[in-house]
């Protein structure tokens, strides 16, 4: 009788040796994948300088451009320029319209500085604010996004003369809403542990001349609107500094949930009160067309932040409409203003209709949500356009609401990825006929005086940079519609 030897039982659990081999193979795969993604998404697309003679550039650059000279401006001019809009503005489906029902296209630039450590819009130490406003209009922009920080409002510091030295008339400027902060905001400002030297003047230059930050902000608004330029005021950041990073103290409109961690702490109510204080002076200035309620909300919740942000935005908008019902309310998406898909299920709803404009920001480094797709500077047009439609383009395509791309930009000396992103974005903005706001006019960053490579003007603040990016040298009335 033949008896077969018993077969070895196969254990369902993988042997330690086999597991080790598989783990080693996986580690090798990951070790190879990470450098590949790094190369594909960053170095390959945005490391090498672009040859603009051979690399595709935006369509408008093919036009014959005429660079304007310096504006024939005097700092003390009294006359106002004609308005560029029939006011007030409204929304109708996907469009912003004027009082005659005609479509309006916001072609904006950002003028930053008041949201940063120095509490003053950039360039006032180089040019009179009227000259800068005239340059902005001559370059073809019809509107300006003007950011401020909550810290500026809460403390209203004295700004030393060195930051506004070309604007000596500011010493006689006094805000109509005189006096200090009131109530809860006043106590909060006193409790703030701000490290800024407020009210001491410029000790280095032995100057005691200072001007209040809110006075300077008001004066800049008036210079812009006297030039016929519309102003969109923007709450950019809580603590006065460069935005944006992973610091949770500045990630959203309120940070009191963090306790005493933040140098400047504020509740949602304080955030709204700050808005009221800033905007109250502009109730009778029709060219202050609205409020960009908060810059680039972001949190570990990611896209799930939209619901709570929408509720807060409605509260702030309603309070501001109690001051001036004509103001447009610009509501940015979450995830650093990249994502507005939440509007489908939770749109912004206000008692005063036709006032909501949604806002998105699009930069070359955006789009990190999909590791395999990579940032926008590495995408082909099909992939880029897919994300744009999904994130915010559907609002225009489906005639739901206007979208203002309130920030985008690229350096004056681009890498290949910069030009790839720029070309894709120009094509998409043209295709969608979206409103837009370029970041930024400023040639220098605050505090360290670092060169702003995204600048639209030279260091003199009046000479445009005629390069591949914008059709700066002619009026931008046909921009995006070539």
Structural notes for this entry:
The chain is an alpha/beta fold. It has one domain: Glycosidases (TIM Barrel). The chain is 29% helix and 12% strand. The protein has ten helices and 13 strands. It has helices at 16-46, 129-138, 150-155, 183-191, 213-226, 268-279, 306-323, 334-337, 381-397, 416-432, and strands at residues 90-92, 95-97, 103-104, 107-110, 143-149, 158-160, 210-212, 230-237, 288-292, 328-332, 356-361, 403-407, 435-438. The chain has an eight-stranded parallel barrel. It has a three-stranded antiparallel beta sheet with strand order 1-2-3, with no helix packed on it. It has a two-stranded antiparallel sheet with strand order 6-7. Helix 1 crosses helix 10, helix 6 runs parallel beside helix 7 (306-323) and helix 9 runs parallel beside helix 10. It starts with 15 loop residues before the first helix and ends in a 44-residue tail after the last strand. Mean pLDDT is 82; it is low at 53-66, 69-76, 178-206 and 472-482. This is Glycoside hydrolase family 5 domain-containing protein. The chain crosses the membrane at residues 20-39. It comes from Orbilia oligospora.
Q: What topology emerges from the helices and strands here?
A:
Layout lengths: L15 H31 L43 E3 L2 E3 L5 E2 L2 E4 L18 H10 L4 E7 H6 L2 E3 L22 H9 L18 E3 H14 L3 E8 L30 H12 L8 E5 L13 H18 L4 E5 L1 H4 L18 E6 L19 H17 L5 E5 L8 H17 L2 E4 L44
Parallel strand pairs: 4-5, 4-13, 5-8, 8-9, 9-10, 10-11, 11-12, 12-13
Antiparallel strand pairs: 1-2, 2-3, 6-7
Helix pairs in contact: 1-10, 2-5, 6-7, 9-10
């Amino acid at each position: 009788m033949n008896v077969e030897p018993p077969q070895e039982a196969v254990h369902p659990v993988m042997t330690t040796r086999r597991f080790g081999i598989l783990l080693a193979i996986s580690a090798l795969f990951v070790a190879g994948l990470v450098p590949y993604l790094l190369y594909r998404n960053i170095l390959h697309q945005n490391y090498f300088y672009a040859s603009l003679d051979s690399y595709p550039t935006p369509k408008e650059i093919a036009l014959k451009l005429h660079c304007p000279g310096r504006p024939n401006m005097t700092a003390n001019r009294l006359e106002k320029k004609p308005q560029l809009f029939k006011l007030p503005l409204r929304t109708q489906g996907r469009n912003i319209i004027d009082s005659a029902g005609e479509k309006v296209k916001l072609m904006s630039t950002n003028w930053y500085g008041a949201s940063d450590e120095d509490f003053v819009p950039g360039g006032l130490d180089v040019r009179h604010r009227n000259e800068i406003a005239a340059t902005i209009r001559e370059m073809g922009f019809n509107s300006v996004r003007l950011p401020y920080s909550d810290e500026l409002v809460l403390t209203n510091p004295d700004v030393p003369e060195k930051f506004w030295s070309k604007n000596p008339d500011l010493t006689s400027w006094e805000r109509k809403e005189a006096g200090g902060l009131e109530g809860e905001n006043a106590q909060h400002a006193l409790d703030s542990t701000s490290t800024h030297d407020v009210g001491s003047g410029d000790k280095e230059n032995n100057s005691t001349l200072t001007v209040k930050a809110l006075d300077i902000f008001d004066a800049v608004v008036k210079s812009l609107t006297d030039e016929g330029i519309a102003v969109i005021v923007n709450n950019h950041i809580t603590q006065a500094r460069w935005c944006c990073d992973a610091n949770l103290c500045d990630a959203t409109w309120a940070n009191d949930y963090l306790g005493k961690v933040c140098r400047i702490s504020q509740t949602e109510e304080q955030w709204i009160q700050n808005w009221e204080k800033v905007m109250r002076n502009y109730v009778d200035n029709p060219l202050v067309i609205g409020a960009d309620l908060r810059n680039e909300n972001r949190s570990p919740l990611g896209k799930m932040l939209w619901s709570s942000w929408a509720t807060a935005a409605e509260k702030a908008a309603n309070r501001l409409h109690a001051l001036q019902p004509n103001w447009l309310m610009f509501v940015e998406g979450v995830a650093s203003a990249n994502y507005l898909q939440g509007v489908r299920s939770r749109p912004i709803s206000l008692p005063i209709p036709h006032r909501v404009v949604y806002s998105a920001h699009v930069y070359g480094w955006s789009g990190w949500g999909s590791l395999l797709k990579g940032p926008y500077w590495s995408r082909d047009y099909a992939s880029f356009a897919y994300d744009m439609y999904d994130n915010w383009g559907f609002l225009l395509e489906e005639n739901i609401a206007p979208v203002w791309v309130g920030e985008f930009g690229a350096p004056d000396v681009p890498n290949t990825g910069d030009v790839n992103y720029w070309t894709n974005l120009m094509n998409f903005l043209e295709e969608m006929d979206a409103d837009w706001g370029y970041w930024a006019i400023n040639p220098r960053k605050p505090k360290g005086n670092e060169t702003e490579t995204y600048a639209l003007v030279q260091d003199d603040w009046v000479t445009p940079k005629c390069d591949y990016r914008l059709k700066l040298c002619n009026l931008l009335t046909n921009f995006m519609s070539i």
